[in-house]
Design a protein that fits this description.
- The protein has 521 residues and is of the alpha/beta class.
- It has 3 domains: 162 residues, Thiamin diphosphate (ThDP)-binding fold, Pyr/PP domains (Rossmann fold, 3-Layer(aba) Sandwich), CATH 3.40.50; 131 residues, TPP-binding domain (Rossmann fold, 3-Layer(aba) Sandwich); 179 residues, Thiamin diphosphate (ThDP)-binding fold, Pyr/PP domains (Rossmann fold, 3-Layer(aba) Sandwich), CATH 3.40.50.
- The protein contains 18 helices and 20 strands.
- Strands 2-1-3-4-6-5 form a 6-stranded parallel sheet, with helices on both faces.
- It binds thiamine diphosphate.
- Thiamine diphosphate (TPP) binds next to helix 4, helix 12 and helix 14.
């Protein structure tokens, strides 16, 4: 991406040598521009908090500005301590924070928050660059200005916020960018609503008020409309005929109207399908926050779901639900390898019913959404506001004040919050922490960047560490995945390490979707 090249090249030409990177997706153009630049030296660490301090160390030693590159969301927030330190010790830092472009902000798009001017009084200067502007002079002069401020009297940190549009990685090609979509949506409180539609679809994300779940399921039952529910909605713990359990793995019939309750769902495929078919699409939420990253909502109703459901009328067509049910097939196929998907599936049978489940960001939340269907548990949890891999162990420990907890976390998320492990010794209820160790960021294998020669080092951030000694350090019992039933029986906190292969998991899921889409109805 040319904008990213202008930013990095300008910095290098001004004398910045060290680019300190924590892996992420939105930052791809900057990371690749730096990796390909002869004058830049790259350092990688999975933890933004750590890499921020690492850059600080370089800047202190060299007395030259060092650059930090981070992805969007809480990744940016994690830079605050090092920026505060740079501010108070007058250390020059160039902080390149990646962001979503304007059309994806303030509409509940994933990993997107208000990170413009987030560091406020701790930076000497800050700028929010445009996503695309064919003006090399502008980019170079903005970067030059940032560099200038790092060297002021006193020197200090600057934030350069860099919003990028997809595609973030296009091998050997230049890219064209589309025009942003802009629509106005009336927002109104619940009042009796009557719709002509008979082919409706109910989508449920995590609900602001969990008690709303039953009225929503009852509405779907009354109308005989199919339901696509995210794992964090907990709907799967209350099976109903209308729930389509494997919606991600099927060709979906086209609805006339979609009612979406609660937060954004984890399934990217569902969101992309809705974006493609563009039905009448109403979001019902008690909160005024716009949740429409695809810019496809046609209406918003600000109301409690229970109140809305009681007042909503439409028609039903018995064949409509049937057309969905016929296509809702378990995608499972036997395979010789044991992947994270297999672990989730076997967990469905082993999970102790008095446990809650926290699914960390990365692949665990996605694998759980697809394959974790326990008969009973205390509910599913996740940190999907900004989908950060930070603080996941600490969140699990907090949840265990209320109930026994099973945490399912990837190795990078675990490394990111390793210093929260001792919290597991203090929880009121036991925590079983499954560390799904595929020796790097498995989620990136599912992205086009996996084709890049930089993939293993800069994106997967591959390593060969095991977690036994970390558990030992904090006096936590440590087991392999096979011991899980025994661990539940013991009722004590423990670390359970599951060794898998991220590429195998990717290949297996690819195989499932190919098999499903080819199978006869
Ligand atoms: C604080 C923060 N930094 C970076 C990211 C970008 N990110 C999303 S998932 C991921 C890798 C997750 O790897 P792991 O925890 O090992 O789980 P896996 O996908 O391998 O199952 C990264 C770095 C993020 N979401 N949050």
């Amino acid at each position: 991406m040319k904008e990213a090249f202008w930013i990095i090249d300008q910095l290098v030409q001004q004398g910045v040598r060290h680019f300190c990177v924590a892996p992420g997706s939105r930052s791809t153009p900057l990371v690749l521009a730096a990796a390909d630049h002869r004058g830049a030296k790259i350092h990688v660490h999975y933890d933004e908090r750590g890499i921020g301090f690492y850059a600080l160390g370089i800047a202190k030693a060299t007395r030259q500005p060092a650059a930090v590159i981070a992805t969007s969301g809480t990744a940016v927030g994690n830079l605050l301590p090092s920026i505060m330190e740079a501010h108070h010790t007058c250390t020059p830092l160039i902080v390149l924070t990646s962001d979503r472009p304007a059309e994806l902000r303030d509409c509940s798009a994933n990993q997107t928050t208000d990170q413009v001017k987030i560091f406020q009084s701790f930076v000497r200067w800050q700028v929010d660059l445009p996503s695309s502007l064919d003006d090399e002079r502008y980019f170079r002069s903005a970067i030059a200005q940032g560099y200038f401020y790092t060297r002021q009297n006193p020197p200090g940190p600057v934030q350069i916020n860099c919003p990028f549009r997809e595609p973030l990685y296009v091998p050997n090609s230049s890219q064209k960018e589309g025009a942003p979509i802009h629509l106005e949506f009336p927002s109104h409180r619940a009042r009796p609503q009557k719709k002509n539609a008979s082919k409706g679809l109910v989508v449920i994300g995590r609900l602001p008020h969990p008690d709303d779940l039953h009225p929503i399921l009852e509405l779907a039952n009354r109308l005989q409309w199919p339901v696509c529910a995210d794992i964090l909605s907990n709907a799967r713990l209350f099976p109903t005929d209308e729930q389509i359990l494997h919606f991600d793995w099927m060709e979906k019939p086209t609805p006339e109207l979609v009612l979406h309750f609660g937060e954004r769902v984890t399934s990217k495929r569902l969101l992309e399908w809705l974006k493609k078919i563009k039905p009448e699409y109403i979001h019902v939420s008690p909160w005024p926050v716009l949740q429409d990253s695809g810019r496809i909502l046609t209406g918003r109703v600000q109301a409690d779901a229970t109140e809305f459901c009681a007042n909503f009328e439409a028609s039903s067509d018995p064949k409509w639900l049937l057309s969905w049910k016929e296509l809702d097939r378990d995608p499972w196929i036997d395979d010789s390898s044991f992947t994270e998907a297999h672990a989730m599936r076997s967990l469905s049978g082993i999970l102790a019913s008095d446990y809650g489940v926290f699914l960390a960001n990365g692949m665990p939340i996605r694998d759980g959404d697809h394959f974790l269907f326990p008969k009973k548990c205390r509910g599913f949890f996740g940190n999907r506001g900004l989908s950060g891999i930070d603080g996941n162990i600490a969140t699990i420990a907090g949840l265990a004040e209320e109930m026994p907890l099973l945490g399912f976390i990837g190795d990078q998320a675990c490394l990111h919050d390793l210093n929260s492990l001792p919290l597991l010794k203090k929880t009121k209820h036991p925590v079983v922490l499954i560390v799904s160790n595929n020796f790097g960021g498995g989620i990136f294998s599912h992205l086009p960047i996996s084709a890049s020669p930089h993939f293993e080092t800069l994106f997967a951030a591959a390593h060969s560490w095991r977690f036994e000694k970390a558990a030992q350090m904090f006096d936590l019992p440590y087991f392999g995945f096979d011991a899980l039933p025994k661990v539940f029986e013991a009722g004590q906190s423990a670390v359970v390490e599951l060794i898998t292969d991220r590429v195998e998991n990717y290949k297996y899921q690819k195989k499932l979707s190919t098999a499903c889409l080819r199978a006869p109805a």
